[in-house]
């Protein structure tokens, strides 16, 4: 590219449509007129310091893709026919308004469920719309057990009252140069592959930056990855056994007195009860449960505890553990026991810049944002609030497994309409896609907001609104810091619109109070940004981002100054104000106050007969660097790097089954079968196979009954749904699926019924 190819470079930041991400990178857009020629990471932005992922680099391919939906569409044939016609925005919004108002008048606002996928820039606009309409049912429907992020957030809050993250200096503008920061001596990378995605507002490359500055690694992962190959200790655990790993480590720390006595005496509650519980997790028992040799667990635990400061960075498979909130509770105790809470180089409390909460992630924020009366009101009808204490008392999501049942049975009340924005349940998100298909078919009216067709829109959409890509839209971000803007660089293609603007317009129609309060969505952003001292436009003029200088989002030891509690008192946001090794919330809610380990619902220890029939543990959903979930298979630059739906298998296992490297084979269990291409991987545990999720090749037939091959390749067909923690959050069994592999005979193809295989 020469300087003649572009006429200017624009600076912005990224979140969501395009790379598809949890966001954060600073971005340089090389532009000519209204066209983006090329995109790069911004070297001046403290978050990514110039680095970025392949999906952002392929952005122009995504933005200009010929299959993008650019106009509102209305289904004209039967569901699954693939027949849609273009309609105007006015027609689309009028129709949605009329239908949803009718449902509200006839059946109550709870008869509409509002659905999102993962944390793209959607939590805030969706919360805004859901409560403007008046429904209590805000959801990540499909995500069995609400098994992403929420269990970690809510479970760890029981211990220390907050969400913490490994301290890689991300809360300081000068990053590694800031004198307040210290490099962690060890980082435990637990159930995450940070260099592949940048989940939960954390860029994986920060780990490498810390390694360059001296951090050593301990990795807890059944698989070998880039980080395990550089780790001092690789704890190769049995999938789903992290609770036992954590309790085993707690036991070692307490037995050997590797803890921080002074801190524990002053700031914590329940150490003796914890000691008693942890003693049940002897090294021998833990080795049996986790497959980790006890000597290695001993050495790794001692190393973590003896080297301060050290940090733990954790990932989503923890949320998919059985009893996941309890696992999160246990792991969070490790940083509390070892004096690594909110200290330089430890686990720091993660707060939105300037304390701004765009959407509440814990009870304190729910109450500050909405108040007790609101919470009591939505809990009357919120799905799962009566059954599950965490649903009622922590975050605002409903319990997704109960919701899908209710969509089918109508019990205790009928669900009539769905608003689905950033979610592709049948293409990669939901466990047991047959059941979700049935539930969605049962709805009277399904509205989607998306950029492309996918198996779910094809199968069940009645209306689709076209969403804008990130350079076509304005938004703000405080996850976690700095506070920053994503700004519109050019007009949207066709008639695509910013999710925020779509939701804002409908919110005004559903709720006149909103219409009175804000004229535009920018008014809302300005209100949210007030604590920063900037308006939306001023923040753009200031370069696009701002760090809080001192205050709630600035580490360290904020428990001493009262910054961690809503009432401003020193201590922690727990009922006792202390770190609780024995949870008083749990005691009140009738849950076990101490952490405990539960087996996966199907495993060698609980269903040995089933394991004889299906001897391999299928661990689904390891992330691909070139795809975000079920997106991007249609981007040729990305697809060529990872072209096929794979099953990674140890050659010793595959050879015995007669399956050659690169050959297609079947993965099956009692719930069905899917096709995959075998990839030999000598580092795979012989008892496990790794199967990436989200596969529906867009080049295959989209109409019923094919749905882009979702029923052929989507491993989630084999995943059990309806399992969960006693808390209500966590426990989706996506990582612990008993299966067998079978050679595909010549001429054999996918001939089974594509839908309803288990019906
Ligand atoms: N490129 C890309 N990035 C993404 C995504 C994407 O689809 N693509 N998705 C985003 C989303 S929503 C999420 S939730 C995050 C997820 O990202 P992470 O939380 O980092 O999870 P993964 O990258 O899936 O890495 C999980 C690692 O945990 C291991 N693992 C599997 N089961 C277990 C287990 O039971 N115990 C332990 N200890 N380890 C286990 C896997 O082998 C894998 O190496 O990534 C986000 N970022
Ligand atoms: N087997 C298995 N399944 C899994 C997982 C696993 O580990 N194993 N991981 C699970 C996890 S952790 C998660 S979070 C879920 C995620 O699941 P989802 O978040 O549902 O991800 P996708 O399936 O890619 O569907 C996202 C849809 O949103 C659209 N989209 C993308 N960005 C935007 C936007 O900004 N606006 C709008 N309106 N639409 C947009 C995309 O085009 C796509 O159709 O998947 C889960 N599925
Ligand atoms: S996925 Fe991560 S690296 Fe890629 S653009 Fe988004 S924030 Fe940046
Ligand atoms: Mo996720």
Features of this protein?
alpha/beta, N-terminal domain of TfIIb, Dimethylsulfoxide Reductase, domain 2, 4 domains, seven-stranded mixed beta sheet, 30 helices, binds iron/sulfur cluster, binds molybdenum atom
Describe the structure.
The chain has 759 residues and is an alpha/beta fold. 32% of the residues lie in helices and 16% in strands. The chain has 30 helices and 27 strands. β16 (445-450), α20 (455-460) and β17 (463-466) form a beta-alpha-beta unit. The termini are far apart. Molybdenum atom (MO) binds next to loops.
Please state the overall shape, judged from the principal axes of the Cα atoms. globular
CATH homology-level superfamily of the largest domain: Dimethylsulfoxide Reductase, domain 2
Number of strands: 27
Q: How many H/I helices?
A: 30
From the alpha carbons, calculate the radius of gyration and give it in angstroms: 25 Å
Bound compounds, each kind once, are: ligand MGD, iron/sulfur cluster, molybdenum atom
Distance between the termini: 56 Å
- Can you give the mean pLDDT? 95
Percent helix, as a range, is: 25-40%
Q: Beta-strand level of the residues, as a percent range?
A: 15-25%
Which structural class matches the secondary elements?
A: alpha/beta
Low-confidence stretches: none
CATH class category label of the largest domain: Alpha Beta
How is the main sheet built? 7 strands, mixed
In total, the number of domains comes to: 4
Query: What would the CATH topology of the largest domain be?
Result: Dimethylsulfoxide Reductase, domain 2
- Lateral arrangement of strands in the main beta sheet: 5-4-17-16-15-6-7
Question: What is the second-level CATH architecture of the largest domain?
Answer: 3-Layer(aba) Sandwich
């Amino acid at each position: 590219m020469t300087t003649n190819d572009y006429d200017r470079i624009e600076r912005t930041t990224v979140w969501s449509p395009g790379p598809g991400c949890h966001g954060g990178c600073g971005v340089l857009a090389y532009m000519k007129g209204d066209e983006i020629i090329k995109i790069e990471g911004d070297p001046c932005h403290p978050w990514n310091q110039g680095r970025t992922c392949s999906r952002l680099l392929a952005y122009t391919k995504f933005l200009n893709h010929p299959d993008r939906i650019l106009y509102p569409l209305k289904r004209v044939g039967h569901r699954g026919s693939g027949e849609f016609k273009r309609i105007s925005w006015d027609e689309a919004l009028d129709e949605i308004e009329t239908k949803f108002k009718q449902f509200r008048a006839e059946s109550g606002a709870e008869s509409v469920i509002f659905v999102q996928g993962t944390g793209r820039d959607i939590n805030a606009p969706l919360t805004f719309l859901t409560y403007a309409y008046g429904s209590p049912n805000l959801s990540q429907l499909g995500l069995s057990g609400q098994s992403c992020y929420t269990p970690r957030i809510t479970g760890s809050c029981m211990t220390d009252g907050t969400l913490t993250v490994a301290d890689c200096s991300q809360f300081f503008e000068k990053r590694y140069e800031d004198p307040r920061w210290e490099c962690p001596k060890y980082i435990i990378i637990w159930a995450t592959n940070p260099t592949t995605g940048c989940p939960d507002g954390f860029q994986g490359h920060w780990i490498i930056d810390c390694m360059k500055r001296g951090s050593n690694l301990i990795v807890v992962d059944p698989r070998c990855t880039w980080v395990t190959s550089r780790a001092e200790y690789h704890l190769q655990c049995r999938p789903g056994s992290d609770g036992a790993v954590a309790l085993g480590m707690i036991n070692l720390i307490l037995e050997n007195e590797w803890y921080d006595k002074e801190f524990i005496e002053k700031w914590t509650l329940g150490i003796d009860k914890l000691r008693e519980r942890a003693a049940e997790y002897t090294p021998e028992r833990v080795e049996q449960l986790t497959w980790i040799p006890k000597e290695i667990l001993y050495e790794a635990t001692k190393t973590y505890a003896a080297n301060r400061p050290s940090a733990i960075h954790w990932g989503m498979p923890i949320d998919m553990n059985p009893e996941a909130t309890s696992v999160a509770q246990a792991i969070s105790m490790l940083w509390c026991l070892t004096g690594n809470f909110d200290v330089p180089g430890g686990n720091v409390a993660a707060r939105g810049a300037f304390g701004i909460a765009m959407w509440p992630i814990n009870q304190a924020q729910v109450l500050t944002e909405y108040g007790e009366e609101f919470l009591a009101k939505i809990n009357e009808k919120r799905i799962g609030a009566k059954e599950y204490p965490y649903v009622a008392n922590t975050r605002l999501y409903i319990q997704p497994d109960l919701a899908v049942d209710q969509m089918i049975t109508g019990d205790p009340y009928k669900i009539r309409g769905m608003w689905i924005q950033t979610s592709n349940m049948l293409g990669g998100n939901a466990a047991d896609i047959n059941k979700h298909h049935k539930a969605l078919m049962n709805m009277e009216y399904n509205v989607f907001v998306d950029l492309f067709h996918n198996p779910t829109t094809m199968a069940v959409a009645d209306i689709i609104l076209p969403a804008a890509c990130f350079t076509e839209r304005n938004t703000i971000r405080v996850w976690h810091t700095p506070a920053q803007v994503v700004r519109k660089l050019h007009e949207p293609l066709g008639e695509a619109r910013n999710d925020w603007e779509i939701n804002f317009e409908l919110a005004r129609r559903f709720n006149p109070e909103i219409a009175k309060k804000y004229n535009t969505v920018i008014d809302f952003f300005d209100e949210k940004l007030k604590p920063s001292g900037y308006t939306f436009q001023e923040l753009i003029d200031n370069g696009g981002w701002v760090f809080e200088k001192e205050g709630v989002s600035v580490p360290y030891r904020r428990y001493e100054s009262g910054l961690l509690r809503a009432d401003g008192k020193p201590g922690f946001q727990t009922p006792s104000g202390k770190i609780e090794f024995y949870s008083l919330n749990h005691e009140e809610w009738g849950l076990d106050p101490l952490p405990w380990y539960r087996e996966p619902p199907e495993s060698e220890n609980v269903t040995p007969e089933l394991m004889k029939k299906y001897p391999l543990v299928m661990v689904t959903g390891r992330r691909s660097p070139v795809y975000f979930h079920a997106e991007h298979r249609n981007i040729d630059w990305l697809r060529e790097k990872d072209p096929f739906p794979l099953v990674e298998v140890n050659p010793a296992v595959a050879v015995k089954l007669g399956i050659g490297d690169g050959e297609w084979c079947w993965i099956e269990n009692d719930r069905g079968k899917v096709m995959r291409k075998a990839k030999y991987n000598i580092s795979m545990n012989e008892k496990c196979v790794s199967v990436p999720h989200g596969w529906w090749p867009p080049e295959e037939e989209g109409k019923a009954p094919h749905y882009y091959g979702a029923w052929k390749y989507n491993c989630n067909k084999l995943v059990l749904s309806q399992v969960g923690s006693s808390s209500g959050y966590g426990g989706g069994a996506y990582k612990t699926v008993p299966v067998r592999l079978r050679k595909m005979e010549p001429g054999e193809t996918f001939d089974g019924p594509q839908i309803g295989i288990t019906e």
